[in-house]
Write a structure and sequence with these properties.
alpha/beta, single chain, two-stranded antiparallel sheet, 7-stranded parallel beta sheet, 14% strand, 11 helices, 9 strands
């Protein structure tokens, strides 16, 4: 497993991270049992995966439980936690900065039950407009938590380009941006990555499989050669960018962990490059022809603004 630097944090993390600790996975499994999670995470550790992402609170609890089953969190592992509700209202209000500081500080303390200290604490933009007051209040809580040894580093997550650019430009204290990036959303690299690089903000790429969409466009990896799969090609394409510190596909089985891990350290072959082109074409056709795919069609518009 290849490692990459996590922005200004200077942490070295595996370029394939572990996402979806209880939900997700290629088969849309809604909840994996404890035994399945223990087996999958143990295999991930054996294969050199060191970056573990958690979004919702129950995911952090789930990961913490697995590490306890395995005898404790390994020292070389980086765990990212997140507060998903730090922007509960779409407009600012009197005292919003102080309220955000209180909310974020409370959420940090909750996560300390499972991970103390927290390696990376992220704020979820949740698709809302950028607010300097909210961000400053949250940052005050994060800086205090870091001075108290509760949090080592912090970042943020977003599904919109404008929000990501505003956060990086106005608050270079963040070391990570988590944003969708995949072979059907290549313009992220053109627009946002140079800004992130200038401020030494690492990109953690989520939705590498286009919210599972790439599995449902009728492109079969087996047609491109032995060992070729949609998941491997999608991950290898994302990792072509040096600005990506890691990608965090959802995994809920040993088989998924092993398949994803093989994408590390390998360039795309000529056959896989052809598959990328075919996946893009099939994805676009699906978006344009299938009304049920409105989410994927509108997703790109929201992301790029």
């Amino acid at each position: 497993m290849e490692n990459r630097r996590l922005g200004k944090s200077e942490l070295q993390v595996s370029e394939i991270g572990f996402g979806g600790h209880q939900k997700g996975g290629y088969g849309r499994k809604e909840q994996a049992g404890l035994a399945e999670r223990v087996e999958a995470i143990q295999r991930a550790l054996e294969l050199g995966i060191t970056y573990f992402d958690t979004t919702e609170e129950h995911e952090a609890e789930s990961l913490g439980l697995v590490f306890r089953e395995l005898g404790g969190r390994p020292e070389h592992v980086t765990v990212a936690a997140m507060y998903t509700s730090w922007q509960l209202h779409r407009t600012d209000y009197p005292g919003v900065a102080a309220d955000m500081k209180r909310r974020v500080a409370t959420e940090i303390d909750k996560h300390l039950v499972d991970f103390d200290p927290i390696d990376v604490f992220n704020l979820c933009g949740d698709g809302l407009p950028y607010s300097r007051e909210r961000a400053l209040g949250a940052l005050e809580a994060l800086e205090e938590a870091r001075s108290q040894g509760k949090v080592k580093h912090f970042g943020f997550s977003t599904h919109t380009m404008d929000y990501g650019l505003a956060m990086i430009d106005n608050h270079p204290e963040f070391c990570v941006i988590i944003i969708p990036y995949n072979l059907v959303l290549p313009r992220i690299a053109e627009i946002l990555f140079p800004v992130a690089a200038r401020c030494d903000v690492a990109v953690v790429a989520m939705k590498a499989m286009a919210a599972r969409g790439l599995f449902n466009v009728g492109v079969d990896g087996a047609a491109y050669g032995p060992g070729v799969s949609v998941a491997r090609v999608a991950l290898k394409w994302v990792l072509q960018s040096p600005q990506v510190a890691c990608t965090i596909p959802a995994m809920n089985s040993v088989a998924e962990v092993e398949e994803n891990a093989t994408a590390s350290g390998e360039p795309l072959s000529e056959a896989e490059e052809r598959m990328v082109a075919d996946l893009r074409r099939a994805f676009e056709e699906k978006v344009q022809s299938d009304p049920a795919w409105y989410y994927h069609r509108d997703w790109t518009r929201r992301l790029y603004g």
